[in-house]
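Tokens for chain A. Residues wanted.
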């Protein structure tokens, strides 16, 4: 199995913003092909932006009360 070496930040981006612990766990399985060149902490601006804009919705107010008329 071919193992590709990249930094933790690069694997984070390549794998769709998977968290650090999951990437480290994947790298321990040689069949996955993931080899880490470092495990340095990093800040992902995409992940920060997504978490920042997430808004909790009130379950009661998000449901329709009446049927919708003709469209």
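Reply:
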């Amino acid at each position: 199995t071919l193992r590709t070496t990249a930094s933790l930040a690069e694997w984070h981006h390549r794998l769709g913003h998977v968290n650090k612990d999951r990437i480290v766990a994947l790298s321990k399985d040689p069949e996955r092909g993931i080899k880490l060149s470092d495990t340095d902490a990093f800040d992902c601006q995409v992940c920060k932006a997504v978490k920042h804009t997430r808004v909790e919705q009130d379950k009661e107010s998000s449901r329709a009360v009446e049927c919708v008329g003709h469209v």
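The CA atoms of residues 49 and 55 lie 12 Å apart. The chain has a mean pLDDT of 84.
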